[in-house]
Specification:
MetI-like fold, two-stranded antiparallel ribbon, 13 helices, mainly alpha, 3 domains, single chain, 364 residues
């Protein structure tokens, strides 16, 4: 277990993972107890109490000091750091009183829309710079330099340009991801191996055929791994935007909870964001395995076609849900119902394909 880059068995990996999580929780709990302050059965005297009238200041202070010294400890106050149990117990109240589900859906939807525009624009701009020497010479270095912009310092400009609504949040998030995505797209295009290009040209493929058969599969199969890395960055930017404009979302919820000293609820929301980020990461891993199976499997098994078709349908519906409101006025309920039915059909197709794949797909 101490060899450099050594491999753990599956059983040891699970046991050590559980032990590591338990250790972190225990350290968290211990630190919370150390930072807690005692809660005393003490209340400051009411100066309007008739029994206190006529007493001078020194007498009042002396009586208050005696009362405070004799106060009993009735518990602890975890103002700085709540215990893990308090964080877990905060979720029911968050869901009931603070509308956690509504804020979560709002933030996730903004996050996905920001990702959509960042991916779309980065593919267009990065493709032009990566494929066409003219654009490469003109814009490669300036675009690459954008990565050094302090994105959080641009919030004032985005509020000036896009207002205070959700459009500003989406634009801010998209730009924050975009400045990293464009150089990555250019780099992935350059990394396409010459042997594949020479083979394509030898077989008589034209530019468009080479683009479709060689460049796009190679670029996308690596680009989806880059998207996983940017997931954490995307949540950072969307929370910053929501804190600035308190109109909904998890960032806005965190801001108001912190203002009310609800640290247990703040930690609960933070843990929820981590859980959503992990789910997004797993989703990208799943999409990578199913859309680019050659990286993981040695055969194209039965059922893969159905899974890929279902995924493309779901992604297409998402793209329409983002783009259609820009051109056509559609009632939100009608749009949600129509998209929901098609997505359910796509999920059914994916599940049917997964059942077939479970029997036939062999890992490398």
């Amino acid at each position: 277990m101490f060899d450099l880059r050594g491999q753990l068995s599956r059983t040891r990996e699970i046991v050590l993972g559980i032990a590591g999580a338990a250790t972190l929780i225990a350290l968290w709990w211990l630190l919370a107890e150390m930072l807690a302050v005692p809660a005393l059965d003490y209340r400051a005297p009411n100066l309007d109490d008739p029994a206190l009238q006529g007493l001078n200041r020194d007498s009042l202070l002396r009586a208050d000091s005696i009362h405070f010294a004799n106060a009993r400890q009735v518990g602890k106050i975890y103002k700085i750091l709540p215990t893990p149990l308090q964080v877990v117990q905060a979720y029911p109240e968050l869901a009931k009183e603070d509308k956690l589900a509504k804020h979560t859906f709002h933030s996730v939807w903004l996050n996905l829309k920001g990702y959509f525009w960042a991916i779309l624009l980065s593919l267009i701009v990065g493709g032009l710079i990566g494929f066409i020497p003219l654009f490469n010479g003109l814009f490669a270095k300036p675009v690459d330099a954008l990565r050094y912009l302090p994105i959080s310092a641009l919030t004032g400009l985005f509020m000036l340009w896009f207002g205070l609504g959700d459009g500003m949040k989406v634009a801010f998030l998209a730009f924050g991801i975009l400045v990293y995505m464009i150089p990555v797209i250019v780099q992935r295009i350059r990394e396409v191996e010459d042997v594949h290009l020479h083979t394509s040209y030898t077989l008589g493929a034209g530019n468009w055929q080479t683009m479709r058969s060689v460049y796009l599969p190679s670029v996308f199969s690596k680009f989806i791994e880059d998207l996983r890395v940017l997931t954490a960055i995307s949540w950072t930017y969307i929370i910053i935007a929501e804190i600035l404009n308190n109109t909904g979302g998890l960032g806005s919820l965190i801001y108001w909870l912190a203002r009310r000293d609800k640290t247990d609820k703040v930690f609960a929301v933070l843990l929820l964001i981590i859980a959503i980020g992990i789910l997004q990461d797993r989703l990208f891993v799943y999409l990578d395995k199913r859309l680019f199976p050659h990286k993981y499997y040695k055969t194209r098994a039965e059922g893969l076609k159905e899974v890929q078709t279902g995924i493309y349908i779901a992604l297409g519906i998402f793209a329409l849900a983002v783009l259609l409101p820009l051109f056509v006025s559609i009632p939100g309920d009608l749009l949600l119902q129509g998209a929901g039915l098609v997505v359910l059909a796509a999920v059914g197709l994916i599940l049917m394909g997964e059942l077939k794949l479970r029997k036939n797909l062999q890992p490398v």
